[in-house]
Amino acid sequence: MSYIVLKGVNYSYSLGEGRSLKALKNLSFSVEKGSFVALVGMNGSGKSTLSKLLNGLFLPTNKSGQVIVDGINTKEVDAGNLKDGDGKEITAFDVRKKVGIVFQNPDNQTVATIVEDDVAFGPENIGLPREEIVDRVYSALESVGMMEYAERPVSKLSGGQKQRVAIAGVLAMRPDVIVFDESTAMLDPLGRREIMSIAKDLNDQGITVIMVTHNMDEAALADRIIVLEKGQIVLDGTPKEVFSHDVTVYGLTLPPATETANRLVEKGFAFDTTITNEDELVEGVCKQLR
Ligand SMILES: Nc1ncnc2c1ncn2[C@@H]1O[C@H](COP(=O)(O)OP(=O)(O)OP(=O)(O)O)[C@@H](O)[C@H]1O
Ligand SMILES: [Mg+2]
Q1: Is residue 282 part of a domain?
Q2: How many other CB atoms are found less than 10 A from the CB of residue 178?
Q3: Which atom of ligand 1 has the smallest separation from the CA of 46?
Q4: How many CB atoms lie within 10 A of CB 185?
Q5: What domain count does the chain have?
Q6: 247-256 pLDDT, tens per residue?
Q7: For the whole model, what pTM was predicted?
């Protein structure tokens, strides 16, 4: 079932003096509930702009463009036209609760001094009862392995730990979808791996994950990779499908394992070039050596 649907979406930034920059052009695609999608593309291809459209932070700038999140058209929310089953107005905040975003810089995402207060910020803002807030904060901290840091100052944490707190803050809102916009970019290899493993666990629990990344090893872990170039989708498929193309024309690299497989083929070995990860590479090498 599609959870997010985009139909003919354009997004232009106004540059003043009547000038504008078209960041997204006629984008149409949908994201299935429970999927793990990697969004890749070179700098300026439109990934962050697209991320902000997915939770209604930005709206399509063309008249016909639509972003529908769990059946809710983000433009109609903005116009105040929608009511829920109880006749209550559906607000932009309701959409943001459904789709949470974790950004790149952990330092820009914390709002409180102490870890548990920071994670509680969202639930407090939606006026949940105290016990519910406490329950959500601790289960979110548990999910990211930060329980023992609950009472510590955020400022004393490492970048990777801060990023885990930021994820907990998003989780405490119980979102259906989490968008990670290059959330591993500022972390060391271990920190990156931890965030990827958290993302995988959350996906296993049914949360839809959209992972914006420049790291092709990370992208290869997704069910589906969408490649953006100049605000348009140029490739969309499984990692095996996408990496069977020459992605260098879109400013990307192949995952190291795929690159190695291709080079072994060049050396005359009958090698499977559709491999996308180290385990498959090792398997392939073992077969040749046996
Ligand atoms: N606030 C803004 N005002 C004007 N132009 C912008 C603004 N933000 C982004 N852009 C432009 O929109 C285009 C898409 O930018 P975006 O940040 O979405 O790319 P990205 O794929 O996330 O890049 P990166 O990999 O560097 O994060 C780029 O040409 C960028 O220069
Ligand atoms: Mg970006």
Answers
A1: yes
A2: 23
A3: 18
A4: 16
A5: 2
A6: 999 999 999 9
A7: 0.94
